[in-house]
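Exam revision sheet. Question 4 asks you to relate a sequence to its structure. Input first:
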Amino acid sequence: MSSRRSRISEEEIAELLSKLQSLLPEARRRGTSRASSAKLLKETCNYIKSLHREVDDLSDRLSEMMATMDMDSAQAEIIRSLFRP
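Answer key, C-alpha cells:
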C-alpha cells in the first residue's frame, strides 16, 4: 500500500461543498447563491451542534415520559420495540 496521500481536486472539493450545501437548511433557504467554503463549513458545524442539542432534548423528554409510564403498558412496549435492533 502506498504511503502517499491521495489528492482531492478542486473540482471534487467544489462538488462536495455543493452537496454539503444542499443538506443544510440555512443554505437551502438561501437558494442557489454560493456561500464561501469557510462560511459553509461553519454553518455545517453549527447545524451538527443543533442536531446534537435536539437529540439530547428528545432523549430527556423520552426519559421523562418513560418515568411516568406504566412499564407494562402497550405504549411502553411500543416504545421499547423502537429501540431494539
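Marking note for examiners. The mean pLDDT is 84.
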